[in-house]
Design goal:
By secondary structure, the chain is α/β, with parallel strands linked by helices. The protein has a single domain (2-11, 57-190), classed as Rossmann fold (3-Layer(aba) Sandwich), CATH 3.40.50. Helices cover 38% and strands 16% of the residues. It contains six helices and eight strands; from the N terminus they run E-E-H-E-E-H-E-H-E-H-E-H-E-H. It has helices at 21-27, 60-70, 81-91, 103-112, 137-146, 167-190, and strands spanning 2-4, 11-13, 41-45, 51-56, 73-76, 100-101, 124-128, 154-157. Strand 3 (41-45) and strand 4 form a beta hairpin. This is HAD family hydrolase.
Length: 194
């Protein structure tokens, strides 16, 4: 099974670094203005009334289609289930609700601690690379939840921050080939035919 991250992998959410005049005066930086009306950015409303400015990665649907040619794909995110389902619907990512694993499932597994049974130790996790090389608790939680046995099962794609350039489009063949190679190596270990 292939598991794909949501934020900064398939979509970008706009967040103000300098949100108001007070912070602007403290930092000496200008207030961040949302890219309303710019190509690709959409206001996504939640049932609660909350609204976010979000953009789908230009190559997201093509990437998901390529992954789905290789096997079943689920969405695995540290965001809430409602957030993931709302983004899935807003951007036509094509995941059934049962194929979306959100923070609630990760939290429930965490509460079990050592009693948690790995969900898919043979799984492959697609994550965005971190530009600062930081240890990310959310990424660790996902790997622990699945029970991944090797760092090779973690495929890093370029991080997407919502700009017009999309490095994944150019690098897609390399990443899809890496996933395919993992699937083939796993099948050969299990005696399955590719």
């Amino acid at each position: 099974m292939i598991y794909c991250d949501l934020d900064e992998t398939l979509i970008a959410r706009w967040q103000a670094v300098i949100p108001n005049e007070f912070v602007a005066k403290l930092t000496g930086m200008p207030v961040c203005r949302p890219p309303v009306g710019e190509s690709g950015w959409e206001i996504v409303a939640f049932p609660s009334g909350r609204k976010l400015l979000v953009r789908r990665r230009p190559s997201a649907l093509e990437f998901l289609a390529a992954l789905r040619q290789l096997g079943s794909v689920k969405l695995l995110t540290d965001a809430t289930q409602q957030y993931a389902e709302t983004m899935n619907a807003a951007f036509g990512l094509g995941f059934e609700p049962s194929a979306i694993i959100g923070r609630e499932q990760l939290d429930a597994a965490g509460e079990l601690g050592q009693a948690h049974s790995p969900v898919d130790p043979e799984g492959i996790l697609i994550e965005n690379e971190d530009p600062y090389g930081e240890f990310r608790v959310a990424r660790w939680r996902k790997g622990w939840y699945l029970g991944l046995r090797s760092s090779e099962q973690l495929i890093y794609v370029p991080r997407y921050d919502g700009d017009d350039s999309d490095r994944l489009a150019a690098e897609m063949p390399k990443h899809v080939a890496a996933v395919a190679a993992l699937i083939l190596s796993d099948d050969s270990k299990c005696g399955h035919q590719a």
